[in-house]
Structures are given as C-alpha cells and as structure tokens.
Amino acid sequence: MQTLQSHVSVLRGITPKQVELLKREIGVDTLGDLIGYYPYRYEDRTQFLAIRDLREANGKQQVIATLQSTRMAGEGRKRRLEAVFSDDSGMLACVWFRGLQWVYKQLKIGVRYVLFGGVEVYGHRLSMSHPSFEVFTPAVLQRAGLDPLYETTERMKVAKLQSTRLAVLIREALGLVQGTVEDYLPSYLVEEHRLPELGWALASIHFPADRPALKLARARLVFDELFTLQISLLRNRIGADGKQYAGQRCTKSGVIIHEFYSRNLPFELTEAQRRVVHEIYEDMRSGLQMSRLIQGDVGSGKTLVALCAMLVAAGNGMQSALMAPTEILAQQHYKSISKFIKGLGIVAALLTGSTPAKARTQLLKGLENGVVQLLIGTHALIEDRVQFQNLGLIVVDEQQRFGVDQRARLWGKGAKYLPHILVMTATPIPRTLAMALYGDLQISVIDELPPGRKPIVTVHCYKENRGKLYGWVEQELRAGRQAYFVYPLIEESATLDLESLEVGYQRLKEVYPHYQVAMVHGRMPPEEKEAAMQAFASGKAQILVSTTVIEVGVDVPNASVMVIEEAQRFGLSQLHQLRGRVGRGAEKSYCFLVTDYKLGKESKVRIDTMVQTNDGFKIAEVDLNLRGAGDLEGTQQSGIALRLRLANLATDGPMLNFARTQAEALLARDPKLEFPEHRLLAAHIEAEKNRGGDYSKIG
User: Is 391 helix (H, G, I), strand (E, B) or coil?
Assistant: First the structure.
C-alpha cells in the first residue's frame, strides 16, 4: 500500500531521468507532491456538437464525424495531409502539417472519429488544424469530461513528461493512495461547514466529473490552502505559552515627541497620519509586542509616522533601528530624519556597507553603550557585530525586499523583550493580498495625502511624437526644473528590441547640449551611483537617466517631469512608484508614458489605468486583477503568494476572509495546536514548512 509520502519512483514506467526531472523542474518528489501539482486549466470534452453548430474563435470544440477522404498535398515545408469528415449536418475539413505518415496510417475511410480542436473558416468551409482524434466507441461518451492540462517545461517535454503523461501518472498516483488519505482538518470543522472529503477533492481537482464537482473540489482545496496560511501567520503573534509576545511598555508619550511636534515639525500632520500615530502609540504602551503594517500611497508620509514611533521609543529609553533596502534610500532617510530631530538631543547614526571601518567601530560602540538612539541602515544592520544596548523598535522600509531570515536576525537583537515591529510598504496593497502577505500584522492605512500636493498629470505618448515631448521637457528645464528619463534595460538586448539606457543617455546629451545629464543604474559602483544621484539632488545635473533603481525613495522636490520609455514593459506597481518620484514640490508635475502604437490588451489596461488615476489603492486592485498575486512586484521576494498553488487572491477574497475567521476561532481554542483533533493539522503545517512554505517570522 502506498501513501502520499511514497516516492514517485513507485509509479509504473517512470524512468530515473523522469524522476530526477520531476524533482528539479517542478519540485515533485513524492506522490503527495505529484497530486498537489494542480492543472492550470481544463479542456471541456463533455460537449459533442454537430458540424453545423461549430463556431470560429469559440475555443476548442468536439464533433463525432465519419472520414470521407484523405490526400497528401503540397511540397517541402508546405507538405500537408488533408482530410474531409462529415456528419448528418455538414462537412469539416482537417489538415495536419506534422507527423503526416503516422496520422495517415491511423485514419481509415468510413470510420467514425471523435475530433477535438480549434475551428477556423476558410472561404465558406469549416476547418480544424491539427485536431486530436480517436476512433469513436461508446466508452468515449462514458469517460467524456473535463481533461486537465498541466504546466510543463521544455526539458520535461523532451523527456516525454508532457501534460498528457502527467495526467496518466497523477491518475495512477491517486489510485495508489486511495483510501489512505487522512484529512488534516478537524472533523468538527469539516462537518460544521459541510466540506467535501479531502481524498475526493484531490481526485476531483484533477479529473472532475463535471463543472459543479470541479467548483466544489476547488473550494475545499482553496480553503485548506488559505486556512493553513492564516493559522501559520497568526501563530507568529504568540509565544510558547500561547499568548501574544510581550513587548517593552512605553508609558511616556514623552517630552521628546512633544518638542518635536511644537518646534521641529514645519507643518501639521494629516488626520490619517495622526490616527496611525495614535494606533502605534496604543500598541507600544500595551505591554505586548507591536506588529503593525503601515500602508500608504506614494508621498502620504509613512516615514514621518515611523519617526514619531522612534521618538516615542527614545522617550522611553529604547533604541530604534530603521532598515532600508538600498544605500540611497538609507542615506535619504538619515538626512531627512537628522533634519527633523535637530535640537532634540537625539543621536542618530547611519550604517551601510560603505561606512568606513573607523567610523563603523565608533558607531558600534555607541550602539552598545546606548549613546546612539536611532540607527538607520541597510542589510549591514543584521551583521553579528551590530549589538544594541536596548533595542525596542524595528522599522522595516520596503519589507518585501528583505528575506525572512534577514528580518529574523534583526528581530533577535532585542534585549529582554522582543522589539516592536513596524513595517512600511512601498505601494498600497489590496486588502486580500495584505491579509495573505502580512496576516500576522495589524494594518494601519494612511489614506490621505498632505495638503498642497497637486495631482500628477499623466500622458500616454507614442514614440513617433518623441520630438514634441523633448520640446515640452525643455520648457520645464528652462523654467529651472528637472526631469527623469527611465529605461527598462541597461544595455542592448538581442531578444528584446527595447530602448536601452546607454543609447538613451547619449541621445539626451545631444538633444539637451546646454544641460547636465547624469546617469545611474544598478550595475554602477556605489560611489559612482551616489555621485550621480547627488549631482541630480543638488541641481547640478538637470536630467537623470536611470533604470528602475530610482523606483523607490529618491526625493528631489524640484523634479517635475518623469518620462518612462517602453512603459508597456513595466508593471503597474512599478509605473506608479516611478511616477511618485515627481510631484513632491510646489510646481505641477507630469509623467509621460512612451510606447509604440501597438500594445497588448493588458499593456493597454495598465497604461490607461495610469492615465486615469493617481490613486495607488485603485491601481493595486487593477494590478492584482490583471496578474494575480504571484506576479505582483514584491510578492515574489516575500515568497508567500507564489506558494499558493490554487488560491487566486484576486478572486478568492471571500474565501480568505472565511479562512481567517476560522483560523482565529481555532487558535482561540487551541493556540499551540495541542488538542488531539488538531494533531494532523499541526503535522501538515510542519510538513508545509519543510516543503518551503514556512510563514513564520514574516514581518
């Protein structure tokens, strides 16, 4: 008897090479892994149409027809096999360009066949190219259903592990484990909500009897996936005793924060900022560890809110660490924070990979003895040599750009209590995605921009009109303002006919000979990159030519123009981030999206969305609906959304809410999953961790 843990080598006819490829290409090692490799779509083989009812551009269709004639036609590459089939309603022409001799030998005139393929109309004649076919028997009608299609790689196809072969192997695997699949969900949950049996759901997701069965099987497996995800995330909040982790209690709102408000803050916080600061303060004085996510659109003032939290920590004798994803952003945070805290008696320091050795030694000493109260830096903060006297607050900017292990190492630098955690995201995230990515965090939303910020005017511009665009940009430059030009590639690509950064840089120097043009990209040495950025920030350079390295955090209020070349190559989130680099000063700002006339359907939706709205939350929803969670910027680095094998956060929001509610209810009863009825669930979650689905310490 085999189980889900049995190795795939027990399957009949599978070769050692195929076993190796299954592991290497799609991570399949056991029968359970194979059964968990779900179809990406299905071909409907339940409908048999009369020839007269076939329609062009209506997907693949199926008929039962009798072969009337065959003939070879054409020469060389144009050689083809033509066949004519008929039923009582009409005639159907079929043509094959590959495997001609094999197909010819299979086809017998006068025999009825089941034909399945896409339909086209040539002249007034219905035609199918390369239809699949088999001799019609009553058994065909009995097994007609929804045929699964599986993603495969080129290496798998070469090794004869194409979709049809995977279907055969999965059908055999399901037969081998039949009757041995234990349901890891507690029986009371299954019975209360009338969930289908797990073994049936696993079989039916691959080989559903009909569409209602497929819908039911998918609902069960999507619930399982989201439920176990939420259990894992919610358990991050609790310690070994089943209670939320303790955190340092901040009992003083503090003289420091009062002085900051009254003396150093040159403007009023928005109502949304004040609300989020209050939520943070309530967390920090509760005696429990704060785990909070700040969501806000570009320019909504997330960093200022985080600074308020750091000042609360300092007023209660604690140190804070702010970790940024790049040196440029860390330096910018350091400069702006230093300006805001001037005269408050707070010592801030910057630690990056390029901090000189002597300065680093002195800084580390100041951290250990508590002199340094605010440390701002990059990944250098997680080095073992970096030790705090009393780390009370960690602020993580651009959370999705840090790995789980890196965040966990910083978390471990706390003293007696775990430090409070404050996470900031670069762009707004739809609620369903936020719950999946940051399910263990409380979420605060800054849904208001500071007064006086003018909406950025976004224009779709075709390459043919680039001359007019250059002239318009020059008007802005003459008015004393600055411009970004962003390109998707660093150098010419043999496979993508894109405008490269190098070519664009040279052209712009010729177009604007009276202005200084700087260039920055990810492959430049840090000192060159910093020099170019400083030249632009100081106004010495009027034009900055860049890749998406400037996507996050660069703050040049005098820049009023953003030109994005090959804009169709960027995701919505990236486009919105890049646009957010302008519109930071008093002047009206503009974003030009440059493309060819010919745009794909999704590219057009992205461009149109950018032109129609500046609202990052609306843009995030469109992005999620277009591409699903697995492809969104940020989610790949976070490593969570991509491990959802079946759930689609764009469409499964209600199921996620339901799964969240059930997970909270279960953990309220048994936070450590120790009850006998939760034994299998705990084991399943542990197994998922070992498969690479560890959701612990996220945030």
Answer: strand
Task: Check residue 680 and give left, alpha or beta (phi > 0: left; psi -120 to 50: alpha).
Answer: alpha
Query: What's the token pair of residue 360?
Result: 């680093």
The helix/strand/coil state of 421 is strand
Q: What structural domains and CATH numbers belong to the chain? A: 47-144 (2.40.50.140), 255-446 (3.40.50.300), 457-613 (3.40.50.300)
Taking only the tens place, the pLDDT of each residue in 285-333 is 988 888 898 988 877 888 899 999 999 999 999 999 999 887 878 888 9
Q: Report which of 156, 174, 154, 176 is spatially closest to residue 165, judged by C-alpha positions.
A: 156
Contacts of 111 (CB under 8 A, 6+ apart): 66, 67, 135
Instruction: Quote the Cα angle for 70-73-75, to 5°.
Output: 150
Q: Helix, strand, or coil here: 231? A: helix
* pTM of the full structure: 0.70
Phi, psi (deg, nearest 5) at residue 643: -90, 5
Buried b (16+ CB within 10 A) or exposed e, 528-567: ebbebbebbbeeebbbbbbbbbbbbbbbbebbbbbbbbbb
**Are residues 655 and 644 in contact, defined by beta-carbon separation less than 8 angstroms?**
no
- Angle among Cα 107, 55, 105 to the nearest 5 degrees reads 5
Q: Two tokens at 564?
A: 């994005």
Q: What's the number of CA atoms in the CB half-sphere (13 Å) around residue 275? A: 12
**Tokens 């089943």 sit on residue:** 242
Through-space distance between the first and last CA atoms of the chain, rounded to whole angstroms: 43
Strands (E), 503-619: 517-520, 543-546, 559-564, 590-595
Query: What is the b/e burial string over 342-366, where b = at least 16 CB atoms within 10 angstroms of the residue's CB?
Result: eebebebbbbbeebeeeebeebbeb
Q: Is 277 left (phi over 0), alpha (psi -120 to 50) or beta?
A: alpha
The DSSP symbol for 419 reads P
Residue 661: HSE in the Cβ half-sphere, 13 Å Cα cutoff: 8
Give the pairing of strands 374-377 and 420-424. Answer: unpaired
What does the pLDDT look like over 135-194, one tens digit per residue? 999 888 877 889 999 999 999 999 999 999 999 999 999 999 999 999 999 999 999 999
How many Cα atoms within 13 Å fall on the side-chain side of residue 543? 24
